[in-house]
Please model this.
Amino acid sequence: MKKLLVVFCVAFLLFACGELPDTFKVIYHSNGSTSGFAPVDKNKYKSGQFATVLGSGTLVNNGHTFGGWSIKLDNTGLLYNLGDQIEIKNINIFLFPVWN
Model:
C-alpha cells in the first residue's frame, strides 16, 4: 500500500508541475562496494517495456561475493540476476547490489 501511495504522489507532483516523463531509466547503485563502478544502462524505456538486468560491472566488496540486484537498499526486495527481465512501470527503477 505504501508503494502505491508513493508512486501516486510522485506521479501527481510531476503531473502538477507539467513534467510527467514518457521514458524511464534503470539506475544501478554501488551501495556497500569498496571499489569499482556499477554498470550503466544508457537505454530509455517506455512504460510496459522490459529492461534486461546487467551484471555487477566492476563492483567489489572485500570479503563478499556479488549476489545479484535488489530493488530495496536493505536487500529485502525481489532479487534480480544478470539477464533477468524487469518491467518498467511509469517510474525509474533503482537497483542495489546484494553482497553475500
About this structure: The chain has a mean pLDDT of 86.
